[in-house]
Amino acid sequence: MVPIVLRRLSRVPRLVVRHVCWRAAVARRFEHEPLDLLLHSLAPLGARIEPLDAVAAAVRLGERVGARVPGWPNTCLFRALTRFASLRSAGHEARFVMGIDADDATVGHAWVEVAGRPWLEPASTWARAAPFRRTLEHPPAA
């Protein structure tokens, strides 16, 4: 019998490949598709639920790989779109969110939430005095 820890670790390489593939698809499709259609196409839930910690490990590694690929944008928007796709395809209810700074409308940010909380976001982003005002959520809040 294979220990549970080893079974979980074997998921990570597969999830990394999936994340990097999503990153390539998002970068390519963003140029030709409106954001609402792109988000809708990324939203179907996967039939199999992968452990959230395995998805997080895969996303972190996939983002390190993706940041080194010439021509792939490495902004919060593309990271959030790719995280959203990875989470949803791994069976997790995730929400893509965009917002603008409450004090400076020229500053914006995009992120993903799981269970109503920012997922894989640095604490420094949320320690600011002025929170972000939400301008877009997908799926829309009920």
In summary, what is this structure?
The protein has 142 residues and is an alpha+beta fold. The chain has helices spanning 4-30, 35-42, 52-66, 76-89, 123-126, and strands at 94-101, 108-114, 117-118, 132-138.
Keywords, separated by commas or semicolons:
globular; single chain; alpha+beta; 142 residues
Walk me through the structure.
The protein is of the alpha+beta class and 142 residues long. The protein has one domain (4-138). Helix content is 48%, strand content 17%. The protein is built from 5 helices and 4 strands, in the order H-H-H-H-E-E-E-H-E. The protein has helices spanning 4-30, 35-42, 52-66, 76-89, 123-126; strands at residues 94-101, 108-114, 117-118, 132-138. A hairpin with a 6-residue loop joins strand 1 and strand 2 (108-114). Helix 1 (4-30) crosses helix 3, helix 1 crosses helix 4 (76-89) and helix 3 runs antiparallel to helix 4. 27% of the residues are buried. The model has no long low-confidence stretch (mean pLDDT 88).
**Alpha carbon gap, first and last residue:** 44 Å
- Counting H and I runs of at least 4 residues, what is the number of helices? 5
Instruction: List segments where confidence is low: pLDDT < 50 over at least 5 consecutive residues.
Output: none
Mean pLDDT across every amino acid position: 88
Biggest sheet strand line-up: 3-2-1-4
Please give the number of β-strands: 4
Strand content: 15-25%
The general outline is globular
> Major sheet: size, sense and barrel closure?
4 strands, antiparallel
Q: Round the Cα radius of gyration to an integer and report it.
A: 15 Å
Number of domains: 1
Given helix and strand content, the structural type is alpha+beta
The secondary-structure element order is HHHHEEEHE
Kindly state the percentage of residues in helix. 40-55%
